[in-house]
Amino acid sequence: MNIKSIVNELRSYNDEQEWFEFKVNWFQAETLGEYVAALSNAAAFHYKKSAYFVWGIDDDTHEIVGTEFNQYCDYNKEPFQNYLARNLSPSINFTFEEDSIDGKRVVVLMIPAAEEIPTSFREKRYIRIGSSKAPLKDYPKREIQLFKILDGRIETIETKKAKYQELTFSKLFGFYGSKGVSLNKETFEKNLNLRNNDGDYNMLAQLLSDDSHIPLRVSIFEGKTKGSRLFSVREFGNNCLLYTLDELLRYGDVLNLIQADETNRVVERKEVPLFDNKAFREAMINAVLHNQWTSGNEPMVTVFSDRIEILSRGTIPPAQTMEGFYLGESVPVNEKLSEIFLQLHISEKSGRGVPKISEVYGKNAFSFRENSIVVTIPFEKVGIITEKVGNKSAGKSGMNERRQRILKEMRDNPNVTAKELHNMLEISETAVDNNISFLKSNGYIERVGSKKKGYWKVL
Question: Helix or strand or coil: residue 104?
Answer without folding.
Answer: strand
